[in-house]
Write a structure and sequence with these properties.
The structure holds 2 protein chains of 2 kinds. By secondary structure, chain A is of the alpha+beta class. Helices cover about 15% and strands about 35% of the residues of chain A. Chain A folds into 3 domains: about 20-65, no CATH class; about 75-155, Nuclear Transport Factor 2, Chain: A; about 165-250, Immunoglobulins (Immunoglobulin-like), CATH 2.60.40.10. Chain A is built from 4 helices and 14 strands. In chain A, the strands form 4 sheets. Chain A has a 4-stranded antiparallel beta sheet. Chain A has a 4-stranded antiparallel beta sheet with strand order 7-8-12-11, with no helix packed on it. Chain A starts with 5 loop residues before the first helix and ends in a 7-residue tail after the last strand. The relative contact order of chain A is 0.11. By secondary structure, chain B is mostly helical. Chain B folds into 2 domains: about 5-75, Rna Polymerase Sigma Factor, Chain: A (Orthogonal Bundle); about 95-165, Arc Repressor Mutant, subunit A (Orthogonal Bundle). Chain B has helices spanning about 5-30, 35-50, 60-75, 100-115, 120-130, 135-140, 145-165; one strand at about 75. In chain B, helix 1 (about 5-30) packs antiparallel against helix 2 and helix 6 packs across helix 7 (about 145-165). The longest helix of chain B has 24 residues, at about 5-30. Classes of the chains: A alpha+beta, B mainly alpha. Chains A and B meet through helix 1, helix 2, strand 1, strand 6 and strand 8 of A and helix 1, helix 2, strand 1, helix 4 and helix 5 of B.
Chain lengths: ~250, ~170
Amino acid sequence: MDQNMTDLAELSQLDPARDREPDAFETLRSEAALERIIAGRRPRNAVVWRVATGAAVVAAGVTGLLAVPALFPSAADKAFAGWTATPTPVDPQQVLPEARNCVKSYGGDPATVTAADIVLTEQRGIAKSLIVKHGGQALECMSVEAGDTYASQTLPAAPLTPANGLLSVDTRSSIGQGDTQYSHVVGFVTPKVTGIDLILADGRTVHTSTAGGWWTAWWPGPEAGEADTIRVVAHTATDSTEYRIAQLSSK
Amino acid sequence: MTPKDPGEREHRLRRLHAENYPDLLRFVERRVPPSEAEDVVSTVFLTAWRRLDDVPDDARPWLFAVARRTMANQSRSWLRRRALDVRLNSIDPTETPDGAAGTAARVDLVRAFRSLSVADREVLALIAFDGLTTEQAATILGCRRTTFAMRLTRARQRLRDALAETPVKDHV
């Protein structure tokens, strides 16, 4: 990497696998999987993969299957069926198993997670969402059944100050296709804001959860992946202000 | 050319594994949670075994490309998000040699990197994180080396622009 590539050298400091070396057990497992491949058997750790279209299921494993929503009715169907526009807060202690699974899915030690690390919780039907502090970052995870993590992402270690002094959007996305497509938003909020509602293009209102400087919501539908179809209403003690979601990017 | 002798085929697969397993595991763990990475890596070697005749002498970009497709096309859960987005190292001030100033610079860098498109982040990560040449990275993305070089130049410029626009923000 020459001098003109110093920006890339600096960027390499952020490499999450920078000092990562497989340990002896990982190497042994991988070598064992290789022997099974050569012997004509599938790797033991291969899992049931659910295809993104939500309709087809490809069974790629025989043993060691993990609890993934591969059977019908799918986790998506059940989560959507029970979805509510108004979330219910959950005592952090009650979602400690989900928070520990969340941290574990990122390679952390679940035993170190306590209820005090959980900064936001919400439940919509059977789906639980939470934001948990872990090391120098925050993790956002959603679980649908049995406390398993079905979706996750990394977030900044702490919420950032919104430029407008009220709220901003950190991430928004839509995932899946057809009947299993859903939207998800996570943002930052200041104590001045008492509540945040999302108004979708079809008129639906989604009430969000706010806690600890974060706000979040998910709902069935594609809107968060669209250019700018969502209106965001921030309520304060004195008034309410409406924004287009594209106005609230924290970038 | 891949040998037809079964013993030689097995030898070649084992050699591919020995030479590429750590790099492949790191490549995958940069993009999916560690708990899922081993499954992806196993799938890559299963594919390599089935298509051994297609694996070129410079196998690493071929294996990485298979891993990338595996992560893109297969989702272990209906709620998988950012399947191909690149994860970032956490920022721990105690691990930053120059303390608060270094931490602030890294926060800026993280914010600048996160402000880029997923496509820009992937181009930068292939070089800065995965340590690939532009030719290898182009193979993974299925484009010409010159095309990748142009995308890299633009992504680096956008990163510099984002850094220039990103002051250190106070936390709530």
